[in-house]
């Protein structure tokens, strides 16, 4: 791994500022990713690398013009084409910074691929899509569907149940079946509730620390806040 922890944290701050996302969003996607990685039996070091990748997944949005990134309404087809380039732009930015960890580069580049080949940027299918990117696609979509938005009437568990149903509906077309199954199993067993409930956008959430420094924080939060069983 080339990027130093302070650089990773500075990049995450920049993404949050530019994309108007919050530390809560970063924490949630990192923590969901870690949970899935644990289910798949990945080792400690790989989980730390995946945490970095998850935190940096939308790095390329730094290079997307504000009028597109922050447009309140629906994007035009032309604007959407520009938005889609955040995957390659993030990848290229990391490569230019000297990052050479394939796990990180692949997740950043391929997190919008679909198993039916209709995703972007490269239209990869099924096994062509790196496993980390397949896992993260499920996480990213679930978080997008459950984060609090002014136009969303469902919040919390109600939103999460709808999001889980959406993942099921898109299982095998958008998402890898094994990733959906693992994620839904974790959701249904209540193992994700502490993330969903305690890292929503209404809470004060600590800024994202680099994965190695985050280890203690995650252990502490888990002890304090769950996992819950509902
Ligand atoms: Fe993205």
Structural account:
This protein has helices at 5-19, 23-39, 44-55, 66-69, 77-84, 86-96, 102-110, 131-146, 156-169, 177-188, 193-198, 211-225. The termini are far apart. The protein contains 12 helices and no strands. The protein is globular, with a radius of gyration of 17 Å. The protein is mainly alpha-helical and 230 residues long. The mean pLDDT is 87. The chain has one domain: Hypothetical protein af1432 (Orthogonal Bundle), CATH 1.10.3210.10. The chain binds fe (ii) ion. The site of fe (ii) ion has 5 residues, from loops.
Q: Structurally, how many domains make up the residues? A: 1
Q: What oligomeric arrangement do these chains adopt?
A: single chain
pLDDT average, as an integer? 87
In CATH terms, what is the fold-level topology? Hypothetical protein af1432
Give a quick set of tags describing it.
Hypothetical protein af1432; 230 residues; binds fe (ii) ion; 12 helices; 60% helix; globular; mainly alpha
How would you summarize this macromolecular structure in one to three sentences?
The chain is built from 12 helices and no strands. With 230 residues, it is an all-alpha fold.
Topology record:
Layout: H1 5-19, H2 23-39, H3 44-55, H4 66-69, H5 77-84, H6 86-96, H7 102-110, H8 131-146, H9 156-169, H10 177-188, H11 193-198, H12 211-225
The structure holds fe (ii) ion (FE2).
């Amino acid at each position: 791994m080339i990027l130093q922890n302070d650089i990773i944290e500075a990049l995450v701050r920049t993404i949050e500022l530019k994309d108007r996302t919050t530390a809560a969003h970063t924490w949630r996607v990192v923590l969901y990713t870690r949970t899935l990685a644990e289910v798949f039996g990945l080792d400690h070091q790989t989980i730390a690398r995946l945490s970095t990748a998850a935190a940096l997944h939308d790095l390329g949005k730094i290079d997307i013009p504000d009028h597109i990134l922050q447009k309140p309404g629906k994007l035009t087809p032309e604007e959407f084409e520009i938005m889609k380039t955040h995957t390659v732009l993030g990848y290229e930015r990391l490569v230019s910074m000297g990052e050479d960890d394939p796990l990180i580069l692949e997740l950043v580049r391929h997190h919008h691929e679909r198993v039916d080949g209709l995703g972007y940027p490269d239209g990869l299918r099924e096994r062509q899509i790196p496993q980390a990117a397949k896992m993260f696609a499920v996480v990213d979509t679930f978080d997008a569907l459950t984060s609090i938005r002014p136009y969303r009437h469902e919040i919390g568990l109600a939103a999460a149940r709808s999001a889980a149903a959406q993942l099921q509906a898109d299982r095998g077309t958008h998402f890898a079946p094994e990733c959906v199954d693992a994620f839904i199993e974790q959701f249904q067993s209540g193992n994700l509730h502490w993330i969903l409930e305690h890292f929503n956008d209404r809470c004060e959430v600590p800024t994202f620390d680099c994965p190695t420094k985050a280890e203690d924080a995650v252990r502490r939060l888990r002890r304090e806040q769950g996992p819950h069983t509902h």
